[in-house]
Write a structure and sequence with these properties.
Elements lengths: L3 H7 L9 H13 L1 H6 E7 L2 E6 L2 H9 L1 H12 L6 E6 L25 H15 L1
Parallel strand pairs: 2-3
Antiparallel strand pairs: 1-2
Amino acid sequence: MERAAKLLGRVRLPGGCLSREELACAVWPQAVGKRIARHTRAVSLADSRLVVEVEDPIWQGQLCTLRKPILSKLSEILGPETVCDIQFRLGVPRRLPQRAEQLRPSPDEADQIEDPCWRRVYKSSRRRSLA
């Protein structure tokens, strides 16, 4: 039984279903494996050259040495004419979504004054000096 991506590479889909670029970007993780796919992202296909963003120069260097085996895997999946070269470029670091921290009111030094009268005097004099 053939893999779905290999089969889709040979099937002529009606116009506009899947472009060659979308198909090449979609099969990138399958061609390189999970580990490499976590550190890379196929972004476009221009003139049979697949542009892949990598997260740092170390990955870029390693993947340049693996260019031929990756190209042969892509040819096996997509067919020989779809991807003829790969360009590895440094991608913009992506920040993962982060939870917003709850805003904590900044501690007011006046709250440390136990006597309410002196606290009020201190706060009013501070306001006057800042005005």
